[in-house]
């Protein structure tokens, strides 16, 4: 029950703005090695971080049967101490969800309904995000943050990669990269300099002729004030435990 309630807000995907054809570098090899290396450098930096908080704003599109697009928005805040601690709060105008992971137990909580589900886990975050999706259909917000810099990133599946120049995201000068993998075009803006943090992400779904996109902006706090107790879920008074059932595969 909780799983079903949580899903609409738990899917925060990659996103990025369009790449102008005139800025794309001409090359016989569509995969620019330097652009792929930029992802590797970013992943290595993310894996070396000790603790951080991020806030995100997501704008996505839903395509109706007649091709009309409806835009939706959501936001999330994450507190992280790699590799085994996470607290995520996800919300839009319709619902709120929270996720807690203390290295022993992961808990999903719906504060409006006061339902929660807990499952034992002991894996690092890079494994946790994959297992939650595979077993229960639950996606951790910005789950790619925990897989970049690990074998799960699957950079060998990139079919096209290019450097699309530089842009400011807020006050940060960022290097802009564009990639293609299967039916997905995605772009990323990475802070230029010694702290290569992702600041903006976009996905375009080319499998749908309407080309729906989702755009995510990420703000970073590298000196967060949260305490370790923030990752352990304590059921609020009046809350009810419900079972988080695995997906039924057909």
From TrEMBL:
Signal peptide annotation: 1-21
Record's keyword terms, sorted: Protein transport, Signal, Transport
GO biological process: protein transport
Record keyword Signal present: yes
Domain of life: Bacteria
Record's keyword annotation contains Cytoplasm: no
InterPro entries according to UniProt: DUF2092, LolA/LolB/LppX
Quaternary structure annotation from Swiss-Prot or TrEMBL: Monomer.
Record's protein name: DUF2092 domain-containing protein
Species of the source: Plasticicumulans lactativorans
